[in-house]
Write a structure and sequence with these properties.
6-stranded mixed β-sheet, phosphorelay sensor kinase activity, 7-stranded mixed β-sheet, single chain, Jelly Rolls, Heat Shock Protein 90
Length: about 1000
């Protein structure tokens, strides 16, 4: 309480039950403590009549427990009822007065001049009394100049005894109400402050759950607030006026947890100076004492002194470890010492007041606040020191992290070369091994590639952390990009997984870095494959305002919901996966960084066991420009000067088609190639390439960019390879990507060579020259095959013909002469083709066919018949040796199983600007598999079909020329369609 009683030396005290205030102005001096000698009647609750009739009483000191009194030589029992009486002589003219009570155990009634003016509980002669001990004020109007104050007190529950334990105060009504208000204000301020500080430290603890000292300090503040609300003016009883006093006393006893929480707090804060065993003992005792409040008050009150001793011991131990901490120069130690001294003083005074052994009822309210302030300063000092140390450690960690990144980067660079070498050697070794051995080697190769991918991830991560990763934002065709990535996986996919590309060709262009967008798709698809044993992986895209949302959905094992928030963190891996599936957890982290750098967002939806969908957004290009280049002035001027399709160079030189959607790159390639040596045609899309191949004759080289709108370089390459072999039309692929999968996919699609952009001009020249040499070699090989066809007739065929001539000379000399003449014409016609690439009159080819037929008829008169269907007006130029080998092939192979009745029909017809040549027989025919091999140039049988293979290759070199083969069990038909005015191929 905030009570300031006047000095007893200056104010009269109660003597012999009488207090004389006749010469004192109560309004001036304020409240007066009614301490001194009161009349005391033990064992009875009496009224004024008892004292007026000279009833016996004993003078006792008030305030005090009645167990300290002796009546008739005997101590007053602790469980008792009693009456206190005193008389006050007032100065004349006093108006309204008041009384303020304090601690009166355990129930009381207050009477003034025979009238009851207040009370707490209901004192009675027996244990049926109603207990309650709550301070209150009583105001009254004195009728004369003398007051008789009688207090009835009863206690049958509290073990330490009853009585008026704290002072009663008398004064004018204003001063009495003022001290009541001041006491309540003090309690409320204490409760609010303690509760607020407790909430503050508890909130602090929620942010730092590992710092348990914050929790214990918060609980200490809460228990202190509870203690204040159940002591002093006992505001809890004011808040809950109907609360049973038994329950109130239990709540009051719970507040003794103060010492327990304080011990736990200092042990947690100064653990290195605290003894764990002692702390455990103190905590166990504190818990047991706190549990004792569950017992009835009559029993639990016996432990009041034990509570006080426990609190005192706990404070001494706390003080002891604080002294140790101060001696060791612990941070903020002096704050602890000052706070502990304040707490000791406060607790000692409070304990003495509660026990009632002394009269110390003026407690400065600043003590609790000083203690809380000291603890707060101590915590602030510790956190400041911790923050400073953390800053130092952070600086060291950053330095170590930089060293780590540098080490990883250098190590990864050193790993790359031997790793790629190892993969190459293993792939070479695998070719010569059997099935099981190959399987093991391929497993090692897959692990090495996985390590290679990890090395690339580490390098990318290091560049991302150093902010060295450059992003080149351009307009990108998502369809082509996804097609290229899916195509790469289609060649290396070994699981029962199907990748479905649902990106439409008319999907809007996005603003992105081409290489990094492909890296994002590679990572997401690779992640889906890794965790999908069978099923589908679907890539789709939808437009959302000015963004395009791309999704990669799999039907794999899924991701637990608790791991979704951290799935994009560095080194984050699913802990539900087995070791074979786990990686370092860098792929998704790098993917998120790459998406962020390109102005997008990435997120994941997944259900365990149902699959996962990774989605990311990219900005949409508002207006797709015709060329995808940066808009700086210099490059814009270059682009504007280039109109497509572009054709320039030496018409007599090697013909090269270049396709790249970036016009600036086209210009670089055109300028890099010597137009005096080459005839260059440039386009910016795959469809134009295919269109040119249908119009231009004898293209020597294709240079294709992998990434082109609507139709990627891979698609173009695959379509070209359906018509031209690797040697007939070499293809050089270009890409700005740095992914090794691109090279594999390009070669799988049918490319001859691969070149990274930006192109090194010297390397470009070397590769172009090498590929043109391949084309030249293929052409030379075709000519050699024609020479080989000629060579085939010489040994065996000449011997057979000469034998037939000799035989006929004995039978029919005229036929023998005619056969000699036809044989001479045939040899002269065959050996006349010194340059097999030039065109010859069709009559020369027919003459050669006629000679060959006559020879064969002379040798096998009954074997076949030959029909020639050609009009005299057909007169044109054709490539040499394209009809006679077909007729020879029909006779030698088509009719080989026929004894007689074979029929060969040669038809030559002109239809408009086309010349149609058909060779038909009724022989054994060919299988469709053999026809397909001949048409694709993959026939491996050297004994059959050499002539046909050669003719197919040569016919395709002529613009507008085609050849087809149809065969059934009853014969074969070969049809060639040539331009009537066909032009020769220049060397």
């Amino acid at each position: 309480m905030i009570l300031s009683a006047h000095d007893p030396a200056k104010l009269p005290a109660v003597q012999n039950g009488i207090l004389d205030l006749t010469g004192i102005d109560l309004e001036q001096v304020g409240p007066i403590a009614l301490d001194g000698e009161w009349e005391f009647v033990s064992g009875q609750l009496v009224n004024s009549d008892y004292f007026n009739n000279q009833g016996s009483s004993t003078l006792v000191g008030v305030p005090s427990l009645w167990t300290k009194y002796a009546v008739n030589g005997e101590s007053v029992p602790k469980y008792n009822k009693a009456t206190y009486r005193m008389v006050v002589k007032l100065p004349k003219g006093e108006s309204i007065l008041g009384l303020k009570t304090g601690n009166i155990r355990m129930s009381n009634s207050l009477y003034v001049n025979g009238e009851k003016v207040g009370g707490s509980g209901a004192p009675a002669e027996t244990t049926t009394y109603s207990q309650r001990n709550t301070p209150y004020t009583a105001l009254f109007q004195p009728e004369d100049d003398e007051l008789e104050i009688i207090v009835h007190v009863a206690n049958f529950d509290y073990a330490s005894g009853g009585g008026i334990v704290s002072s009663l105060y008398l004064g004018d009504d204003e001063s009495i109400l003022n001290i009541r208000t001041a006491a309540l204000a003090y309690d409320w301020v204490m409760i609010a402050a303690l509760f607020a500080v407790g909430i503050y430290f508890f909130g602090f603890y929620l942010h730092f759950p590992r710092e348990r000292s914050l929790l214990f300090l918060a609980l200490f503040c809460f228990s202190m607030a509870l203690y204040t609300s159940t002591h002093g003016e006992k505001v809890l009883d004011i808040i809950l006026p109907g609360i049973p006093y038994e329950l109130f006393s239990k709540i009051q006893g719970t507040s003794n947890l103060i010492a327990l929480f304080l011990v736990a707090y200092f042990h947690s804060t100064l653990k290195e100076y605290s003894n764990k065993s002692i702390v455990k003992i103190l905590i166990v005792i504190g818990v047991l004492l706190s549990c004792s409040v569950l017992l009835p008050l009559k029993i639990s009150s016996h432990l009041q002194n034990v509570y006080s001793i426990y609190l005192f011991v706990a404070i001494l131990y706390i003080f002891y470890i604080q002294i140790k901490a101060i001696r060791n120069k612990t941070v903020g130690g002096m704050y602890l010492l000052l706070g502990s001294l304040t707490l000791i003083i406060y607790c000692i005074v409070g304990t003495l007041n509660v026990i009632g052994n002394t009269k110390i009822d003026s407690l400065p309210p600043i003590f609790p606040f000083i203690y809380l302030m000291m603890l707060s300063l101590f915590m602030a000092h510790r956190f400041t020191d911790t923050y400073r140390k953390n800053e130092e450690l952070t600086a060291k960690l950053i330095e170590v992290d930089q060293f780590k990144d540098e080490f990883l980067t250098k190590t990864s660079h050193e790993f790359k070369t031997p790793l790629h070498g190892m993969i190459a050697i293993l792939q070479t070794v695998a070719k010569d091994l059997n099935g099981k051995q190959q399987e093991k080697i391929h497993f090692v190769i897959s692990q090495a590639k996985r390590l290679s991918s990890l090395v690339n991830d580490v390098l990318d991560l290091a560049r991302l952390k150093r902010k060295e990763l450059k992003i080149d934002l351009k307009q990108i065709d998502l369809y082509s990009t996804v097609f290229v990535v899916v195509e790469a996986f289609s060649y290396i996919l070994n699981k029962e997984i199907k990748i479905i590309n649902k990106i439409k060709k008319d999907t809007p262009y996005v603003v992105a870095d081409e290489n990094r967008l492909r890296q994002i798709l590679y990572n997401l698809i690779d992640n889906a494959i890794k965790y999908t044993t069978q099923g589908e992986i679907v890539i789709s895209a939808i437009q959302d305002d000015d963004k395009l949302i791309i999704s990669v959905k799999d039907s794999g094992i899924g991701i637990p919901s608790e791991q979704l928030p951290t799935i994009f963190n560095n080194y984050e891996r699913g802990n539900h996966l087995d070791d074979e599936q786990e990686g370092m957890g860098l792929g998704l982290s790098i993917t998120k960084d790459l998406v962020d750098l390109q102005g997008g967002q990435i997120w994941v939806d997944s259900k365990l066991g149902e699959g996962t969908t990774f989605s990311f957004s990219l900005p949409i290009v508002k207006e797709v420009e015709s060329n995808h280049v940066d808009c700086d002035d210099e490059r814009t001027q270059v682009v504007e000067s280039l109109s497509l399709p572009y054709a320039n160079g030496n018409p007599m030189g090697k013909k090269i088609i270049i396709a790249d959607d970036n016009h600036a790159n086209l210009r670089v390639l055109i300028e890099a190639l010597d137009t005096t040596k080459y005839f260059i045609i440039a386009v910016d899309n795959g469809a134009d390439v295919l269109s040119l191949l249908g119009k231009e004759r004898d293209v020597d080289l294709l240079i294709l960019d992998i990434m082109m709108p609507k139709m990627s370089g891979y698609e173009v390459c695959q379509i070209v390879r359906e018509t031209y072999s690797l040697t007939e039309l070499p293809i050089l692929m270009l890409t700005a990507a740095i992914l090794p999968e691109d090279m594999v996919t390009a070669f799988q699609a049918g490319a001859n060579d691969f070149l990274h952009k930006p192109v090194d001009l010297q390397e470009l020249h070397i590769r172009v020259n090498n590929l043109l040499l391949i084309k030249e070699s293929a052409r030379a090989a075709t000519n050699m095959e024609i020479a080989f066809l000629q060579a085939q007739i010489k040994p065996h065929f000449i011997y057979n013909v000469l034998t037939s001539i000799i035989s006929l000379s004995y039978i029919d000399i005229e036929k023998s002469r005619a056969l000699i003449l036809q044989f001479a014409k045939f040899l002269r016609g065959s050996f006349d083709f010194t340059n097999t690439n030039k065109l010859i009159p069709i009559q020369n080819e027919l003459s050669l066919v006629h000679s060959y037929i006559e020879i064969e008829k002379a040798r096998f008169p009954e074997r076949f018949t030959f029909e020639l269907d050609v009009k005299d007006e057909v007169s044109c130029m054709i490539p040499p040796l394209i009809i006679q080998p077909l007729v020879e092939n029909a006779i030698r192979h088509g009719l080989s199983a026929e004894d007689a009745g074979g029929k060969i029909i040669l038809s030559i017809q002109q239809k408009g600007e086309k010349l149609i040549i058909t060779v038909r027989d009724n022989g054994i025919g060919m299988s469709q598999e053999k026809i397909d091999k001949i048409m694709s140039g993959k026939l491996k049988d050297g004994r059959n079909g050499v002539g046909l293979l050669n003719i197919v290759k040569r016919i395709r070199q002529f613009l507008g020329a085609s050849i087809s083969i149809e065969s059934t069990e009853k014969g074969t038909e070969v049809e060639m369609i040539l331009p009537y005015n066909i032009q020769g191929i220049e060397e």
